[in-house]
Every structure is written in structure tokens, then in C-alpha cells.
Amino acid sequence: MADQKEMREVYVETLMSLVEEGKDIIVLEADLMRATGTTAFAKKYPERAINVGVAEADLVGVASGLSAGGKIPFAATFGCFASRRAYDQFFLSANYAHLNVKLVGTDPGVTAAYNGGTHMPFEDLTLMRVIPNLTIAEPPDAASLAAVTRIAAETDGCFYLRLQRKAAPQIYPDDETFELGRAKVLRRGKDVTLVALGTVMVNEALKAAASLAEEGIEATVIDAIWLAPLDEATILANSPSGRIVTCENHRVTGALGSAVAELIAEKAPGMRLARIGVAANLFGEVGTLEWLAERFELTAPHIAEAARKLMW
Amino acid sequence: MSSMNREEIAALERKAREIRGLTIEEIGYLGVGHIGGSLSIVDILVLLYHKHMKIDPTNPTWAERDMLVLSKGHAGPALYATLADKGYFPLDWLLTLNRGGTKLPSHCDRTKTPGIDMTTGSLGQGLSAAAGLALARAIDKKPGFIYCIIGDGESNEGQVWETAMFASHKRLSNLIAFADWNGMQIDGLTKDVMDMEDIVAKWRAFGWHAQMVDGHDFAAMDAAIEEAKRRAAPGIEKPTIIILRTIKGKGAPFCEGQVTNHNMNFCIAQVKEALVALDVPAHITPELLRAQ
Ligand SMILES: Cc1ncc(C[n+]2csc(CCOP(=O)(O)OP(=O)(O)O)c2C)c(N)n1
Ligand SMILES: [Mg+2]
């Protein structure tokens, strides 16, 4: 998969084609333009690329004003700062004000790797999920990212996108179509359903399903793509076993696992749930992605083990 | 004026070259890291830890110690090298930088590393914490100084200017801050990304004693610190900020003064070249590596 395009390139190229098609997009950065890769966008459209310096509150505040002025702002920074350091600006100036701000949080969960615990967003999705009517997505590969970016630009209202910067294994063909709020079923099996979100976890869930199949356990794998609105219908309709394992590169409190727990409690009582994600009592740490995935129990073997336990 | 004589200054300069070498080795053995902003603050770290700070490396939590908040927490590797050299922890810990389970994470963490007084990494937060530490001392009428280092890019953060108001309003003259004015942030030169214009005038307007000195000139920095210490009278006198004109990546031939040196990859061959240029021996020896 070494020749896969980096996800950030896909993000930037999609924004550039949207501009070419006439969308009034403004890219905003807070001294992480080189990290997000939007330098290429800034070169092509210098008047549409704004760097506010190391100032995330201002980043989101200015984006809100640009939106009120009729622009379509895409503001990006590390996910930890997009959520924690600009939360009230995004909550109030953007969402409560019913504007059209697209906020991009890069380096989700353990992909923050060598930047360590201070930079490791395990709570951004939780914070975002409690904002009314906010659309939240974490597309796992290039095709889904391009589609989600396009949907965000073309849909009025605020979005939070979780963006892994590095290349991701291809999951969808380039011409796959995506719809806001619709999950994708990647594999069907009668014994257990794995609902995963984001590059790291969708790939781990697929690996877990493959290894479970060798033991005779048939797993369904759903790529949630959208945390909000969550595709409840697809999840329920594809969980014939009544057993669900949620898989997120995030703390288990408040995001995908919690959303599915709420869904089950209210609409499918009797289903059984296991949540794979970072334990509620842990902060992020520093290390390689592989070391961290092991440390926080996010790997395929952890998912498979959780699935097996539900079978007992 | 600095009270230091020529030998004292030469000793600090030698120590700074050693700490630069150690910092380059520390990051170089991992292969990637925040080298530029680490190297630009080595001289001020050496001056603080080898002359000004009242500390006890065998008792890192001693209540009456002077403290340092490294608000530009990504420069942790330079502080780790300084602390290891001072004896806060063994030198071989430096080889664990950023490796899973390490006590030396990329950004400073008070819960993990002996000698780290405050957790930082989200830029803009450290100076507020330093003001809080200084205020705690003032309330308790305890002596000692709280030092803090912020970056020039970091100075874009609004929170820095909230503390600027606060520390001055509270007359926290036991707080002595430094701004590492290396002229660069991630996306380029600070004057292109976010021009801070007349920074000394800004701090003075916020009620601080402010001056700019050469951040690689020990006598000049020492004189500025001496002056701030002499003046200190918490509750009465204003806090001090010393703007340090520095070179990002100072001392590493492979990246000195280059705008791309914020967080970069480099290899052992470049480490060795740098040690030769600095005229210091390798600290990280084959024996140390084998012991890992
Ligand atoms: C709140 C916050 N936003 C963004 C970052 C990412 N970041 C790390 S260093 C840096 C640039 C800092 O520039 P400066 O303060 O000048 O550091 P130096 O040149 O001394 O390395 C940025 C944007 C961060 N650590 N914290
Ligand atoms: Mg700088």
C-alpha cells in the first residue's frame, strides 16, 4: 500500500477541485499548514488560504465570521486543539449561531504517536457529539475522505472531520458513492457485528473478522463513517446475532461505543455490546502507533477476543 | 552588568556545547524530533541551571526550589539533556526519548520526569501556570523565583496576553519569563506567519519590565536576570520578560537557521558531524547503547 496517496493530499486536492467548481471555500490553519498539507492549496489560491498563527480560538472564531460573511471555511489543526482549545468558539460562534463551519481535527487518537499524550485526542469525538446537529465523520480511506469532504462543502451546517494525515489502505473503489449519515457494510456474517470508525479501527476490525473466520466465527463489519448522525438503521439491520463490538481510536466514554450503547438500550434491548477503545481512566502517551495500539488495546486480536467473549 | 568573569562565562559556553551535543544525540538516536526549538534555548537553560536556579537535583520536589515552566513544551529534549547532565536522572534515559513507556515524552510532563516542574505541550498555557506558581509563593510569602520560557510562535496564543495582564496586575515580580525569539514557527518566519511587530513595546504596554538581549550571549542574559532579581518585590514590583534573540537549530550544522528544522528527521552520521563541529565528545557511547 506504499503507493497510496497521503490522506492529507486527498483532502487538499478535493478542496482545490471544489474551488474550481465555484465553491467559495477558505482554508484556515493555525501554524500547522505544513502538517495538514494545505501549503499546496495556499500556493494555488493564496487569497483563499489564511494562517492565523498559533491561535486556535481565533482560528475558529475567524472561520465563524467568514461563514457569516458567506464563505465556506475549512479550518484545521491537530484534533486535540481543534476540540479542546477552540471548543467554545466552535460551540457558540459556529454551531449555536447556525453557521457553516467545517472543522478538521488531524492526527486522531494514537496516530498522534510521537507528539505524545498532550497531543493525543481521545475525547474530541465525545466533545463534538454533544453539540446539537453537528455532523461528525471519520472516513477511513482516500475515496471516503474525498466524498466526505465534498459532502461537507456541499451541505449547509457545521461539520467536524477527523483526518488521519498519512496514507491509508484502500477500502473503497474510487467511484464508490457515499451519503451523509449512511454507514457501509464491508463484510457480512451471522455471528457478531463489528462497528468500526476511522482508518485504524476499520482496518483492525477487518483483520479481526478475517481471523475470526478462520475459527468459524462469521463477523459482519460495518464502517460507521459518520458518528453523527449515526446510521442506526444500518447497524440494527446488520446485527442479526444481537452481538455488537464497537471499535474506536478514542476513549470509550462518550463516542461510538456510547452512541451504540444508547441505541441498544433504547431501540434493541437484549442485544449485547462490547466496546473496544481506550479505557475510561487513561490519558494518551507517547510512542509509535503500533506500540500505542497495543498499549491501549485497539488491535485486531483485542477486537477478536471481545467478539469471542460475546459468543460465550 | 553581569558579575561573571571570563572563566565563568567560558565554562558556561563549554557546558552549552555539551548540552547541545547531548540534545542532538538524544533526538538523533530516535531519528526525528523538535531539534530547532530545543537548540535555540540551550544557552538560557545552562545559565539558569548552572548559575541562577536554587535547586537540588537529589531532591527534585524540594518545596523551596526555584522552578522552570518550559511553556514551549516541545523543546523538552533540551531540558531533559540539561537535567540528566545535572544528575536528576541517569544519562541513558535520554535514549528512551519518545519510546513507548518512556519517562521522557516529547512534551514536558511533571508526572513523569524528575525535575520537570510543570506539564506543557499545548502552547500558550505555561505562562499562566507559571503565574499561578509565582502567586502561590507570593501568597505564602516564600522566597524563590519562577522562570518560564515561551516561544515567539507561541506568543500568538491569546492566553499569553491574558497572563500578561494578570501577572502584571498582581505584581508578580518573582516571575521571570523568557521569550525565545528565534523568528520561526512551523509554517515559516514569524514575520510572515503572524508578525508580532514591536514585542518589547507590547510587553511594556501590558505592564512588564521588558528588554531584548542576545539569547546566545551569557553576559547579556545574566545581566538582565540579575537586574530582574534585584528588583523583585512580589506584590509591589512588576514581572520581567527577557526577549532572547536566538537562532533556531543553533549549533547543529545540518539545520542551524533553517526554517524546516522545527521537527525534522536526521541520522547518526549528522549527529557525529554535529559533535565534531561543537567540539564535544559523544556522551552516548557504544557501552550505553549496548546496555539498552
Ligand atoms: C495549542 C497548540 N497549538 C499548536 C501546537 C503545535 N505546535 C507545536 S510547536 C508549534 C510552533 C511553535 O512556534 P514557536 O513557539 O516559535 O516554537 P519554537 O520556534 O521555539 O520551536 C506549533 C504550532 C501546539 N503544540 N499547541
Ligand atoms: Mg519560534
Strand content of chain B: 5-15%
Determine the fraction of residues in helical runs of chain B and give it as a percent range.
Answer: 40-55%
CATH class of chain B: Alpha Beta
Helix content of chain A: 40-55%
Order of helices and strands of chain A: HEHHEHEHHEHEHEEEHEEHEHEHH
Q: Can I get a quick summary?
A:
With 312 residues, chain A is of the alpha/beta class. Chain A has helices spanning 7-20, 33-36, 39-44, 56-68, 79-84, 87-96, 124-129, 142-154, 198-214, 232-237, 256-267, 289-295, 300-311, and strands at residues 25-29, 49-51, 72-78, 102-106, 135-137, 159-163, 184-187, 192-197, 219-223, 226-228, 243-251, 272-278.
Could you name the key traits of this structure?
A: alpha/beta, Rossmann fold, 2 domains, 40% helix, globular, B: 292 residues, alpha/beta, 11 helices, binds thiamine diphosphate, binds magnesium ion
Fold and architecture overview:
The complex is a heterodimer of chains A (312) and B (292). Helices cover 40% and strands 20% of the residues of chain A. Chain A is of the alpha/beta class and 312 residues long. Chain A has a 7-stranded mixed sheet with strand order 2-1-3-4-6-5-10, sandwiched between helices. In chain A, strands 7-9-8-11-12 form a 5-stranded mixed sheet, sandwiched between helices. In chain A, helix 11 links the parallel strand 11 and strand 12 (272-278). Chain B is an alpha/beta fold and 292 residues long. Chain B has one domain (6-291): Thiamin diphosphate (ThDP)-binding fold, Pyr/PP domains (Rossmann fold, 3-Layer(aba) Sandwich), CATH 3.40.50.970. Helices cover 41% and strands 13% of the residues of chain B. Chain B has a 5-stranded parallel sheet with strand order 2-3-4-8-7, with helices on both faces. A two-stranded antiparallel sheet of chain B has the order 1-9. A two-stranded antiparallel ribbon of chain B has the order 5-6. In chain B, helix 1 packs across helix 4, helix 1 (6-30) packs antiparallel against helix 10 (268-278) and helix 3 (42-52) packs across helix 9. Classes of the chains: A alpha/beta (312), B alpha/beta (292). The A-B interface holds A 29, 31-35, 39, 51-55, 57-58, 80-81, 84-85, 114-119, 285-288, 291-292, 295 and B 32-33, 73, 98-102, 105-107, 109, 119-124, 153-154, 156-158, 185-187, 193-194. Thiamine diphosphate sits between chains B (36-37, 40, 72, 74, 121-124, 151-154, 180, 182, 184-186, 248, 262) and A (31-32, 54, 56, 81, 85).
